[in-house]
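Entry type: protein chain
Record version: 2
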Amino acid sequence: MGTEDKMKSFKEYESEVSEDSGDFSEAMSLAHRMKMKASFRKNKAKIALGKKKAARKLASPEKLKSRATKKARDIMIQKILKDKKKGDLSFAARAGIEKRLASKKGAIAKIAKKLLPQVKKADRAKLKSKGGDK
């Protein structure tokens, strides 16, 4: 048994995946997408365990801010798409929407700031309903 056989912790795996994925400033190629798919499939049990652990804890301020930003992006996407769903669009159309969103970073940040108290409240409510402690 060498060191490569040692099972990684969730944090080690998460940091490795985030290094591989970069900062998402450009769209993933099909090959990279397939590589990520295989990686997630291989490590799905570890990922699930990490999610389960994280669900029992109060989210960090950075995590809450990223959730608020994601909600703000979703709101902007809905404004752009109106009645359509993002999943129904082609990859090229999604890339076009991402470009449009990149130019609206200020508006997204403003909406995210307004959503932050709601996100915090939802996180605390989630813990309270599951009977977890802060």
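Comment: The first helix runs from residue 10 to 21.
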